[in-house]
Amino acid sequence: CCVAVPQDKYVTVEYFGRSYKTLRPGLNWAGFDVAGLCVALRSISGRTQQLEVKVTTKSKDNVFCTVHISVQFAVNGQQCEDAIYKLASVSDQIEAYVSNIVRSKVPKMDIDEAFEAKDELSSNISAELSEALCEFGFIVSNVLCTEIRLHKSVMDAMNEINRQKRLRDAAIMEAEAHKIRIVKAAEAEADAAELQGDGLARQRGAIIDGLRTAVLERTDHKATTEELSHLLVISQYFETMKQIGTKENSKTFVMPRANPADPENQLRTGWLQAKAGLEGIRGRGPTQQSMGQRMDPRSASPPADRSAGAAGAAGARSSQ
User: Fold this and answer.
1) What is the pTM of this model?
2) Which residues contact 4 (CB under 8 A, 6 or more apart)?
3) Span 59-89, pLDDT tens digits
4) DSSP output for the chain
5) Residue 23: how many CB atoms within 10 A of its CB?
6) Residues 236-239: contacts with CB under 8 Å, at least 24 apart
7) Scanning 41, 100, 254, 258, which has the fewest C-beta atoms within 10 Å of its C-beta?
């Protein structure tokens, strides 16, 4: 009889239960048969198949996880008889091999290492599984570790650890940024103070040079350092008074120094005395007010009493 073999099949011919030959895809002569008693056919798929294997195991740090392994395998065309006759269930055989390999590798790793070593785990499974299935007529084309699934509570704990780590890093970076801002602000303030001091020193130097030149041109007298210092203090004093006077609601109390020989003291005292004299001439000076305040009330009351007594006595005499 003739047999048509599909492209994706491998078919073996049995004569009276014994394997005789393998038929290739296409039309093949199987042999003479009598009522189906002489010739029997057995077939197996030549396509690449995929088997999903789930293995539950424990890591080195005592975390239980489920490892998902995808095994892609196919029949070796040169050993199709071994694939048909040697294994009763290729799926059960592959699951047993994969489970054994995974349970021997993952317990040696921490859970973080297991996630990082997924490719290494796939390579180890592929190498050992290919060697084991080769004698049974199967070729392992690829092994993929598609997922390592943890319990939800473990996943939440790991996520919380990562979140706290990120928050700590963010806090450290924020503190470093705040430190840099403070340092830079202090440096800027120091530079500004230094520049302000340099500017003030140059300003006072220019004032001293101007005063020295003015004195020399007008009096032909070379001013000494002490005289220039006095002139500088006086000019700075009037400049300060001017700035204070321009402020709203400002109150200034000028206290003269105890040394009357000081030219600055003489200048301030003369200015204050002149101002007090002008106010006294205008009738609103502090002299009259102070004199009125210094009068003793008891000195004013007796005259009034005496005038009242005198007036009463005069009235009495008139009535008489």
Assistant:
1) 0.49
2) 26, 27, 28
3) 888 888 899 999 999 888 888 888 888 888 8
4) -EEEEPTTEEEEEEETTEEEEEEPSEEEE----STTSSEEEEEEE-S-EEEEEEEEEE-TTS-EEEEEEEEEEEE-GGGHHHHHHT-S-HHHHHHHHHHHHHHHHGGGS-HHHHHHTHHHHHHHHHHHHHHHHHTTTEEEEEEEEEEEEE-HHHHHHHHHHHHHHHHHHHHHHHHHHHHHHHHHHHHHHHHHHHHHHHHHHHHHHHHHHHHHHHHHHHH-----HHHHHHHHHHHHHHHHHHHHHTSTT--------S-TT-HHHHHHHHHHHHHHHHHHHTT-SHHHHHHHHHS-HHHHHHHHHHHHHHHHHHHHHHH-
5) 21
6) 237/264, 237/268
7) 258
Instruction: Tell which residue, 71, 70, 83, has the closest CA to residue 9.
Output: 83
Chain segment 262-310, per-residue pLDDT in tens: 666 666 676 777 777 777 666 654 444 444 443 444 444 444 443 334 3
Using alpha carbons, select from 129, 117, 126, 121 the residue that is nearest to residue 104: 121
34, two tokens: 């009598």
